[in-house]
Amino acid sequence: MGNATSGPSGSPSSDASPLVIARSGTILTVGLNRPAKRNALNDGTVLALEACFGDIADDVRAVVIHGIGEHFSSGLDLSELTERDVTEGLIHSRMWHRVFDKIQFARVPVIAALKGAVIGGGLELACAAHIRVAEPSAYYALPEGQRGIFVGGGGSVRLPRLIGVARMADMMLTGRVYSAAEGVTLGFSQYLTEAGEAYDKAVELAGKVASNAPLTNFAVLQALPMIAEANPQVGLLMESLMATVAQGDKEAKARIRAFLDRKTAKVKPT
């Protein structure tokens, strides 16, 4: 793993590694580190993400992924695309699927801080995160239709679940670009911050989710998506089983007791 050598949204890092990785307590931050290329995703970056998410330390409780420089990611590095034949292209796409699955099905919640370009493969990467926080500079696009290609990093599976098939089709057919303000309404992100604040907000949220019971986070990340897509009766059974397991955990019992003893605050609007 690389070492942090600059701020999350400041000048480009001098670190030659494709990722800038740092720890802050139980939170791991992962910065895409190709600012001169608008953090375009080449094989080295994608494989570095696989190594990172395949080796998350046991005491890490949340991950924030962000872009070094002015952009989150402009997508696939097209300079690599011309080098592949059909078979190699298929294998390459499946490699992206494997890596982004490691993010979506990570042991801990993953929060993406978005700014500037969030397009093509960069949008596919953002969709693999569990929470997305955008600042006003963020914009979303799928230029594959104009490039004569098709999404290959899982976008056709993940993005329609966020914004719908028709809206994704429109983006690919017409090259439509959505702004950050539109994106928070339509489902590209769950949060919209002031300029320059997406990273800090993502870290703040990471701190909140890191304080949850690990088994509850596991259930939300692993069981909830399957329940939502299952036959309703199968989903209800899965829910009952997951609820029973979670309630039986020692930490859950301690947290409920603390609430009943008035040691924890009640939920109130912020």
What's the layout of helices and strands?
Elements: E1 19-24, E2 27-32, H1 43-53, E3 62-67, H2 78-81, H3 86-104, E4 110-114, E5 117-119, H4 121-128, E6 131-134, E7 139-141, H5 144-147, H6 155-163, H7 165-174, E8 178-179, H8 180-186, E9 191-192, H9 198-210, H10 214-229, H11 232-247, H12 250-260
Parallel strand pairs: 2-3, 3-4, 4-6, 5-7, 6-9
Antiparallel strand pairs: 1-2, 7-8
State the distance separating the first and last CA atoms. Answer: 38 Å
Largest beta-sheet characterization: 6 strands, mixed
Highest CATH level, the class of the largest domain: Alpha Beta
Number of strands: 9
The helix count comes to: 12
Order of helices and strands: EEHEHHEEHEEHHHEHEHHHH
Mean pLDDT: 89
| Low-confidence runs | 1-7
